[in-house]
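Consider a typical record:
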Amino acid sequence: MKKDLLTLRDLSADDFEALFARSFDLKGRHGAGIPDLMLQGRTLGLVFDKASTRTRVSFEAAMIQLGGTPLFLSAKDTQLARNEPIADTARVLSRYLNALVVRTYSQGLLEELAAAASVPVINGLTDLYHPCQVLSDLMTILEKKGKLNGLKLVWVGDGNNVAHSWLNASAILGLHLVLACPEGYYPKEEILEPAKKDTSGNIIVLSDPKQAVCDADVIYTDVWTSMGQESESDLRKKIFRPYQVNQALVDLAKDDVIVMHCLPAHKGDEISADVFEGPRSVVWDQAENKLHMHKAVLERFVARQ
């Protein structure tokens, strides 16, 4: 039976552990020049509605390095742009491809496509979730800290799709997650409240970023204005200015805190240039680890087909 990855709630704690172990193994083999070709003869379709650098390139490179073939499809160049029903597109693509990575606006559209597809569908980002991003972020924290349990992870900024995936991950893994967001920009209640219930108090939402980052092991930020919100940019810059991750904020955390950003970054807005380029920043390792985690995801979801 095919398995989809639409949100991190589709994974068990054992699934997380297996993906972490395999991603580190694949990273080590890649660094040693050892080829892994377990997806030879398989084809991955990437159906993208939204612009992408890291997600697209890392999935394409991962598929190639595993011996398979990626096929990029901009949604505007398909019959989706001419209102072909989602279900019809899904059923046709399932006859040609072994799996789909979809990057789009609507989580509902993604779920409709996955329901009609007979091959695995992987969420490459929607307005609601970004599961593969957080999987590679967790890999990076494990790489830098050696553990997840006992760490204080602090999200600073908008309660957006990446924050929602952090909530899902925390609910499954029992992480201590603190979110510092302006009032009115908290994560969605229907995602936040079940996660808080599942972690028995390990998830806290505050409006004071200075209080939030006290004794933090990890500080994570993201853009203040996500794709599709461009008309709100000027207003958001005013509201989020006190939430910039700068050196004064980082100094309130632990001495060995790491600073993360899923990129692209607007230096001088959500993160200061000195912190972004500074010794606490792990953004480049974080970006690289998308390749290795995506290999692990593809192997787990595609190889079984």
Q: What stands out?
A: Residues 283-302 form the longest helix (20 residues). Strands lie at 43-48, 69-74, 99-103, 121-125, 152-156, 176-180, 203-206, 218-221, 258-261.
